[in-house]
Amino acid sequence: MSRSSSLGRIVVDGTGRTLYLFEKDRSRRSACYGACTQYWPPLLTHGKPIARVGVKQSLVGTTRRRNGTRQVTYAGHPLYRYVGDTRPGQTNGAGLQDFGGGWDPISPAGKKIESGG
Description:
Elements: E1 2-5, E2 8-11, E3 20-22, H1 36-39, E4 44-45, E5 60-64, E6 70-74, E7 77-78, E8 97-98, E9 101-105
Antiparallel strand pairs: 1-2, 3-9, 4-6, 5-6, 6-7, 8-9
């Protein structure tokens, strides 16, 4: 699903929480493990993820994490939430440089949205 934010339209989870991509991820594989997941929990699924209003089903997919769980991807980017976002619509993780890479919200077109800050 997508919603408007101060950064433009962004992809959010079913509860309206901002979803982020990690610039360190490569080839649809997550580079966020261990302590990283305490701050940037991966968006996991047990079934086929379903796109909601404002996002394209053709861009929704999954990737297998090292522990066998399935992480939701959008346009090939594994998706994460940020623990510093405590309410729907917050983008407190935008532009952070944590765990060796940048974190950015993702647009409905599947592109990272850089906050410039």
